[in-house]
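thread: overnight batch results

M.L. [08:02]
morning all. the overnight job finished for the chain we discussed friday. pasting input first so we're all looking at the same thing
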Amino acid sequence: MVGAAACHPRPGPLVPAPLPALDRDTAVAWMRATLPRHPAAIRFRWKYRDDRLSAAGRGQARIAPPDSLRLDYVATLGVKSGAGVVVGDSIQWADPEKDFRSLVPAIPMLWAGLGYVRAPADTAAVYGRTGAGAIDGWTVRVVAGVDTLEYVVTEGRERVLEAQWRRAGKVVAASRTRFGANALPAAARIDFPEGPARFELTVVAVDTVAEIPPALWRSRR
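M.L. [08:03]
and the structure it wrote out:
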C-alpha cells in the first residue's frame, strides 16, 4: 500500500473552489453539533502503516466535551502500548512521547477521525456554505496563519465527514470518517501524504454515558 501511495501525485485541496465568508456563530454551531454532549468512550481496532513499519492493535478514546481527549492504545500481543492526553490541539502529556507523536502527528485529524470538529480559534478566518442538494451537509474552511483546515460533511445513505489540513499550501494530513445508522462514528482513515503513512480505525463500541475518573487526565496509570 505504501509503495503505491508513493507513486500518487501530490494531493490537492479537499475543496478546490473559493468559499464565501461565513458568519462565525453559524460555523461554531455547525461544528459544536458534532461534539458529544456528555463524556464518551470510543473503543476501536486500529492499523498503522508507513514506509518503515506496519502495526495493529486496539485502543480507546475518552472524550470530555468540548475539548479534552485521552487516547490509550496497545499493539497486537501487547508488544507496545501508550497513552496521551490532548486538550484542544495540544498534547498535554504522552507516554511514551515519541511513539504517541508518531502515531498521532496531526491532532486536528485525530479529532476529525473520531467524528468531531472543533470550533475555530477566535482569530481564524472562516469560510463556508451549506449544501444545495438533499444529500449535502456543510462545508467549512478555517484559515489561521499558514494553516488551513477544511471540513466537508455529506448527508445521504450514510453520513461522511472529510477533513484536510494544509500548511503553507502543502497537505499535511487528510481524513475520512463514516458514521453508522446510530449517527456515531463507525470507521475512519487518516492519511499523511509526505510519509506516506496511513492510520485506520474501526469502531467496536461507543459508550455515551462513560464516567472518566479525574486521575486519567493526569497520568497514564
